[in-house]
Amino acid sequence: MTTSMAGAFAAFAADAGVDPARFKAVIEEAYGGGDPNGMVAGLERGTTSLAAFERWLAERLSPGAARPVEAEGLRGRLFAGMEPDPAMAAAVARARSHGIRTALVSNSWGDAGYERDRFEELFDAVVISAEVGLRKPDREIFLLAADRIDVPPEECVFVDDLPNNVEGARAVGMEAVVHRSAEFTIPRLEGLFGLPLEPRE
In whole angstroms, what is the distance from residue 95 CA to residue 189 CA? Predict the structure, then answer.
């Protein structure tokens, strides 16, 4: 539903003078099969405060940086380069107009960054990790989302830009697509649903 998280993080690292290898290691620890109960997991499940997380992350990123990474406001600077993806939002809206039940399943890094005023228009259910105490790729969060839209997991299609999350969805029986761009994902969804999801000339 947004532009690339990886691109936003890379832009932050370049701007902050953070060693790209160190930044990559921190992200891989969080999303590449690292500690399932670490600081990132705690933030996403709502058991760690944003301030505590920002202090921890700043400490992890500062060694070797051009200058010490300031903790306060770090989350906002990390995601500054991310924007809503209008093409994906339009595809979700069109799917819903065809009777496809839709859900947002999001790992949250604090409450900022959500277009909450569009939730009612786009989604039948919204499952935000810190609000439910679960995170992707926990199997329970996928099952909860399926239950909230009253669709069996094996009839659900899940889209995410992180392969670990996609594998988590597949583990509960969902069809799952690794998202790289709207140009790639929308045709895949059209094939799965047998429905047009983008404007036709």
Answer: 9
pLDDT band at 34 (very low <50, low <70, confident <90, very high): low
Measured CA to CA in angstroms, residue 33 lies from 29, 86, 163, 168 at distances of 7, 31, 11, 12
Residue 91 structure tokens: 């595809």
- Nearest residue to 106 (alpha-carbon basis) of 55, 65, 145: 145
Mapping DSSP to helix (H, G, I), strand (E, B) and coil, where does residue 75 land? helix
Rounded CA gap, 77 and 8, in Å?
9
Write the pLDDT tens digit of every residue in 81-104: 888 899 999 999 999 999 999 999
Kind of pairing between the strands at 157-160 and 175-178? parallel
